[in-house]
């Protein structure tokens, strides 16, 4: 007979594991969790929020640069994607980071179509991750509200 | 362990143009019982140190303030707009007031010539991003040993005296703004994985 807390905890565990197994997150995300404690209980949420703001800003910059038909500043796109790659790496956003690598390659070879396609994928990917992490944080909240502890998940 | 200028905690100046990375490095350092100041550029770092020009500091820090906020370690990203981490490193090493401060370079790119260039210019270490807790722990131990050597405290025993126990126990009892987390109780990855020195790396 499973209590609500146990059910939620299992859901949380399973969901977390799936995010890693499906390649959304890598071990840097685990590293971030190590930095969260009673003194800094929302650290991970705060960092990923900053990351998603970064995504929005940088993707918008790149889209604008790519919009300048005939006069695309590939250097600007390159430096923006370098920044995005860096922050995605720092939070463990594995798929986003992978797409940034591809985008950087398109940019370096001044492949306009490739850049446009890739940028669209980056946009979709970060939004997908954002939704998934929101679900994960919601589960955490439900566990806490039900009076339970958030389980440590070993990947 | 009373080290002149160290008081109870290391004061680290962290330089990075990325919001995300500043937040992460700040937390990594605070959880390792360091006092942290973050700035977003090399220019701001020089300003903070009072090295920003022939006319002196424009940041209104008095000499007294500077001594209170004495920086024990500078950790800087390599690729930044404006002044790069390498250029910042050079400026620091050129200054008589600050050349003794260890400088660590961080980069997301494992480029051997870049690493060598920084080490030759006097960088204490080179960290590959993303930076992990184990990197910071190792860094802190390195800096404490460097600091001790400079204070002449190694004369009583062999030069390679490891102060693991001392380092882990004393800083965590310090109060102020940093968390009192005992780093030694956390599970760490192998610290050597991010050591970039001058070893050839096959990728």
UniProtKB/TrEMBL annotation, chain A:
Any one GO BP annotation for this protein: phosphorelay signal transduction system
Localisation per UniProt entry: Cytoplasm, Cytosol; Nucleus
CDD domains tied to this protein: HPT
Entry keyword set: Acetylation, Cytokinin signaling pathway, Cytoplasm, Nucleus, Phosphoprotein, Two-component regulatory system
Pfam families xref list: Hpt
Modified residues (Phosphohistidine): 82
Main location (coarse class): cytoplasm
Keyword Cytoplasm carried by entry: yes
GO cellular component, one term: cytosol
Annotated ranges, domain HPt: 40-147
Domain notes: Histidine-containing phosphotransfer domain (HPt) contains an active histidine that mediates the phosphotransfer.
Entry protein name: Histidine-containing phosphotransfer protein
Species this protein is from: Capsella rubella
Lineage: Eukaryota, Viridiplantae, Streptophyta, Embryophyta, Tracheophyta
